[in-house]
Specification:
Strand content: under 5%
Largest sheet: 2 strands, antiparallel
Number of strands: 4
Helix content: 40-55%
């Protein structure tokens, strides 16, 4: 399988210098097959059958050709048509051998999972990929907020932000520039959290995150890089 492009790390709280590989090797991987290998949207596994191609073009921001490309790569990695958390972590680890991607992969997996089976279907993966790569700034920030709101209580605490940022540093390993230790990462989060938490109540709301990110041209530009052309 050929990997043509992947999505950048979803953290407005890290600079591009700190994550210097952000435009090349990053989390939430977009899988592609070779264009000349495209066939009809058929699946030959007994456990799961995805929705019709035409329906998927209506519920996502991808066209038929793009969905076929994404699906081919998805099927190669996940022949049963479903992905559990361990498999998802394994896929991430292939793209980040220089670090430990398991914790960040778990956080991302939890933003995609839509049912009680503990597994991700192709529709789940495609829906979140459409939102993160082709969605509006608001949609992308909604997803990022959900990534950092680990317990899904509607707010981000400083501890949650520290945990997610730490998982990103752990995943990037030696590719952080300059190298960042745990204390430096904690200090960085403390500064950013104070800027976002306007009412100083110890929690960051979705509105506070959107307002802060909308004032930062660098963050808005980084969100634009999530727009992937297949």
């Amino acid at each position: 399988m050929k990997i043509k492009k992947v999505l950048p790390p979803s953290s407005p709280f890290l600079t591009h210098k700190q994550c210097k590989i952000s435009q090349k090797e990053t989390p939430l991987t977009l899988w592609f097959g070779k264009e000349e290998d495209i066939d009809e949207f058929n699946i030959h596994v007994s456990r799961y059958r995805p929705e019709e191609l035409t329906k998927l073009t209506k519920t996502t921001k991808f066209n038929k050709k793009e969905i076929q490309l994404i699906y081919r790569g998805f099927k190669q990695e996940c022949p049963t048509g479903m992905v559990d958390e361990d498999s998802f972590k394994h896929i991430f680890s292939q793209f980040f051998p220089q670090g430990d991607a398991s914790q960040y992969a778990q956080y991302v997996f939890n933003t995609i999972k839509r049912n009680q089976t503990g597994k991700i279907s192709f529709e789940d993966f495609l829906a979140i990929l459409s939102k993160v790569s082709r969605g509006s700034v608001q949609e992308k920030l909604h997803w990022i907020f959900g990534l950092y709101d680990l317990n899904k209580d509607g707010v981000i605490t400083k501890k949650e932000m520290q945990d997610v940022v730490h998982s990103i540093y752990s995943m990037l390993g030696r590719h952080t520039d300059p190298h960042t230790d745990d204390q430096s990462a904690k200090d960085h989060v403390d500064r950013i959290f104070h800027l976002i938490d306007k009412n100083n109540d110890g929690n960051v709301t979705l509105d506070e995150l959107i307002e802060w990110c909308s004032r930062d041209e660098g963050i808005l530009q980084s969100l634009d890089t999530l727009d992937t052309v297949l």
